[in-house]
Every structure is written in C-alpha cells, then in structure tokens.
Design goal:
The chain has about 130 residues and is mostly helical. The protein contains six helices and no strands.
Length: about 130
C-alpha cells in the first residue's frame, strides 16, 4: 500500500493532504528535476513574493463588492486557487530551506498577537504597542 495515496496522516487525513505529506512531495518534485541548487532562501523568498503579487493582481482594481464575488466566477476562482497553491508551495519550500516549522511559527505568532491585542473590554485591555 502506498501511504501517500491511502495511509492515514495527521488526525486521519490522507498523508498526501497533510502539510508534511505535501512538503515531502515538493521536496521529491524538486529533487527529481535537480532543482535543489536553485531553491535557496533568497530565491524562494523572491518567488513567494512574485506569486503573492500574482494573487494580488487578480483583485487589483476591483471594488470591495467585486472582490467579494471573485470566487463566484469560475475562471477567476480557478486563478485564485492556482495562485494560492503557488504561494503556499513556495512558502512551504522556503520553510524547508530555512528550517522553520510553519505551523509552530504560526501558532507562536497567534499567541503573541493574543497578548499584544487583547479582546476589548477584557481584564488585560492594555496594548503596550498602541499609540
């Protein structure tokens, strides 16, 4: 049995749909094409920025109402999904190159933000970074 196709991953999710499974697929994809020398942190950060710009381009001159309706247009929705995939792929590859666990980094950032920006009216309604 090929675990990538049918084996359980995190919380019963097929391995190919876990972050680690997708990360390994990206590593294998690049290795099979001998692209590793080009996957430096600088190059991956630049590629990530370019792909984020391509995602932004879809929304560039839209009104808020038009932007909210983008996913109801099949052609634009397809473009959005493709650009999201490109951004995520380069982010995951960047994290691999620099040794950052993106889930741990995000969890730590959310924790810091919860302390920096408490719920208004809460017991700790003080923001030392404000104004």
């Amino acid at each position: 049995m090929n675990e990538r196709e049918t084996g359980p991953g995190e919380r019963g999710v097929p391995t190919e749909l876990t972050l680690e499974g997708l990360r390994q697929r990206l590593v294998d994809f690049a290795a099979a094409r001998r692209w590793e020398p080009y996957h430096t942190p600088k190059n991956l950060a630049a590629a990530l920025s370019v792909e984020a710009g391509e995602l932004l381009e879809i929304f560039q001159w839209l009104t808020p109402e038009q932007a909210a309706a983008v996913m109801s247009d099949p052609e634009r929705a397809h473009r959005v999904r493709d650009e999201v995939a490109d951004v995520l792929a380069y982010l995951v590859q960047f994290c691999t190159a620099v040794g950052v666990d993106p889930l741990e980094a995000l969890a730590a950032k959310i924790e810091r933000n919860e302390h920096r920006f408490p719920v208004p009216g809460g017991a700790a309604d003080v923001n030392p970074d404000a104004g």
